[in-house]
Amino acid sequence: MTNLEKYRNAFVEGLGVSEDQVDGLTFQAVPEWDSVGHMGLIAALEEAFDIIFDTDDIVDFSSFDKGKDILKKYDVVIE
Amino acid sequence: MRILSSTTGFLGSHIYYVIEGLNTVIIDPGDAEIAEQIILEESLVVDQIILTHEHCDHSYGCIKIREKYNSKVVSSSACSANLKDERRNQSRYFEAFATVQERMICENPKGIKPFSTEADITFNEDIKIEWKGHVFYIRETPGHSEGSVCILLDNKYLFSGDTMMWGEPVNTRFTGGSRKMFEKISLPWLKTLDPDIHVYPGHLEEFELGERLKYPILQ
Question: What is the value of pTM for the model shown?
Answer without folding.
Answer: 0.94
